[in-house]
Amino acid sequence: MTEGHTVKENAKERLKSATLYEDMGFLLTRSRAVWVARDRAFFAEFGLNGRLYAVLSLAASGENPTQRELADFLRLDASQIVALIDDLEQRGYVERRSSPTDRRTNIIVATDAGRQVHGEARAAARDGEQSMGPSLNAEDRATLLALLQRVAFEE
Amino acid sequence: MTEGHTVKENAKERLKSATLYEDMGFLLTRSRAVWVARDRAFFAEFGLNGRLYAVLSLAASGENPTQRELADFLRLDASQIVALIDDLEQRGYVERRSSPTDRRTNIIVATDAGRQVHGEARAAARDGEQSMGPSLNAEDRATLLALLQRVAFEE
DNA sequence: TATTGTTATACTCTATAACTATA
DNA sequence: TATAGTTATAGAGTATAACAATA
């Protein structure tokens, strides 16, 4: 039993000698999976997931994004934004406001309820990161954030 | 036209003021999407995708992993490993060898052809990163890699 | 009893194409 | 002609449950 556990952990360490352990694509994939699996629990408390949270966050930013701008920023197809907005709108968290200058475009803004939920979900995720997150100090965290911002928005 | 492009880019910059731009989960998700979209072209040349490449890479590592060990290292369910190995085995890139000490377990090893393809795919991805990748210098890249290794394997 | 590999299933995410109404 | 939003569809990725063989 304890031996089994030890063997399994040793295997995990052993495989770190593989070239894959230096592969950026693999590390980004595994890091993201670990991170969102933890976030999921905190967001589920508010009926949200990562994508709904992201849209709500931008809607609550005060920048009045259009659906197209949401799609570009989140790197999702415009068709996916439709379903996400539909969902949040039905719950009364965001509103579609037609632009006064271009009747094709919708401006997405968070309602009071939407801002409230976003604030609570954000706090829950932040607290969760502190209690269960990786052992990154403030400096490491800021460094990682800055590097990811460059990779994420290079295209 | 050029104005439209400018407006769109400004919107993207404008939304960076949102709290989401500091959100680790979002940045990991977007970084991964950007990275694997680029990798996809290089891997497709060899009939591979990110997950097949990862399994092949571990099979070619010389560490003789079992299917269970592959699942743990890649953070995939054991049932997903079955299909990936089936695929690679049919192409003659890996073999299932039953363990001499435990008849339940399969040890996965790359064939000569598998090692060959893995080497070529790895070189193509590396070259592609240099020509199309983010403007990270060697130090930034190493820093990012080390931080991601910690996040990816914290659990 | 517990673990390895396996099959099956459902759900989410992602990628594409085509349509409409406006510009 | 081009763009914003929408609908539809198929494929890839992910999460769970259950089973047979073996430990």
TrEMBL record, chains A, B:
User: Carries keyword Transferase?
Assistant: no
Q: A single GO molecular function, which one? A: DNA binding
Q: Which UniProt keywords apply?
A: DNA-binding
Q: Where is the HTH marR-type domain?
A: 21-153
Keyword DNA-binding tagged: yes
User: Alphabetically, which GO biological process terms does the record hold?
Assistant: response to stress
Q: What is this protein called?
A: DNA-binding MarR family transcriptional regulator
Q: Which organism is it from?
A: Microbacterium thalassium
Give the source lineage, highest ranks first.
Bacteria, Bacillati, Actinomycetota, Actinomycetes, Micrococcales
